[in-house]
Amino acid sequence: MCADFPMKYILVTGGVISGIGKGIIASSIGTILKSCGLRVTAIKIDPYINIDAGTFSPYEHGEVFVLNDGGEVDLDLGNYERFLDISLYKDNNITTGKIYQHVINKERHGDYLGKTVQVVPHITDAVQEWVMNQAKVPVDDDKKEPQICVIELGGTIGDIEGMPFVEAFRQFQFKAKRENFCNIHVSLVPQPNATGEQKTKPTQNSVRALRGLGLSPDLIVCRSAKPIEMAVKEKISMFCHVEPEQVIFIHDVSSTYRVPILLEEQGIIKYFKQRLNLPIDDQPSDLLMKWKKMACRYERLLKVCSIALVGKYTKLSDCYASVFKALEHSALAINYKLDLMYIDSTELECSTEAENSVKYHQAWQKLCKADGILVPGGFGIRGTEGKLQAISWARKKKKPFLGVCLGMQLAVVEFARNCLNWEDANSTEFDPGTKNPVVIDMPEHNPGDMGGTMRLGKRRTVFKTENSVLRKLYGDEIFVEERHRHRYEVNPELTHCFEEKGLKFVGHDTEGNRMEIIELENHPYFVGVQFHPEFSSRPMKPSPPYLGLLLAATGTLNAYLQRGCKLSPRKNDSYSDLSDDSSPEKEFPYSDTS
Fold it and tell me: What positions carry a catalytic annotation?
């Protein structure tokens, strides 16, 4: 383990356009440094005035990622956790709203002794203090203080709302000292179809704007659709006042697992060692080699498993980012390529007009040919009837099914309507006056202020029976701890009616009042969970409920359970001894005939 040294800060900024991939770049840099034996943490700065991401529409910023402590944060913190295998906190996500609220509270308390409170120095000082304090918070299981803090500044250089944060780091680079602070600027190199030439002018302008605000990039990461030519690299080096080795290329690749490999191949470890005076070797450890092997396996997969995701935010894939990643992790673990089909649940709903539409028939065609069906979480009544139709199809046709949060609640509603003959069974979220409220408001639900009014964060779920598929998938644990985000739950007074007909509530909270897991008897895989297991999925540690869905969808679940829930014949060695030329079928012996 590396000796202790002053905290090193790596600031990642972006230029030209938003959504350029700063989050993946920041996560990949953290992964590389962690592979060198360093303890790494991450902070995301979002310049919007909202206190957190909890009240956003998914179409605004993608999914709301939930942390162990209940923080509702930007989806990039999900990237950090997945890449670095760490557990972050809500204070690892800084927003303009949080900073101003913090400063205003101090002003009201009299902490500024009557001084005029201004953006400089009070807001900028608050940003710096927040970063320094949060960088010290342990995020690994060993609870040791981090040594590296990767900070991503959201938005684009030049945005008016990001100016106070840029100024804060302009000051901070001198406070931290040069050997402890590094700035990485991610920029776009477009290639217009009209000329086919890769253009450097946007990057030149972006770096000029960054320098004009007082920050000079140590590394320029150039994003492009295709690999960048050496002449382009030399031009960027000349006009942006950096050495050629300080210009890094990241082109579009088959998977994000390849990004840390591209960075490492371009000498980023050697650069950080010299620039930040890090006591590390020039070569990465086995961790990065595992990433390389995983990326190679991902690109060689031949067998395909199709999953239908039935939701209402299907126009933007980021709305279900963690769900997609959890499915991808599970598919990769069993050597299948994931074919995720997004289905707008409103297009499955029956009506005379709908049944005559092309979209209606296309949606049902997708659903029918899928190997498995997933209904994720969500809020609001729109699209719920379509989700109920999909759940009914999965139950009757014995298609592998996983319902998450709202998906579980609707599975209970569907079962009540069609198996218990409670025709008006519903959730009080959608019909407060229903005679059969099978899903109800939580007793402590506060319908007042928006934000933070839900059951949030990591909670314990206790298995009440050994005869549970999900318990076996979790390694036959007595209890599990997963993250929650919901306001409604299954009515505990009615559960006996469901269990008599075969829908078992196999998991509940520690008090036994909240229903957490359902399983349907005599079905290949019909599982619902009140929690969100996708938030805890990791590339090398797939989420058990999602893994179960992929195993069932590929016809390998029974073989997996019979072999003691091992992905490899070698105990706890699923990824460690795969070489680049190894055969996935030999290492992961589950096939359609097993």
Answer: 405, 532, 534
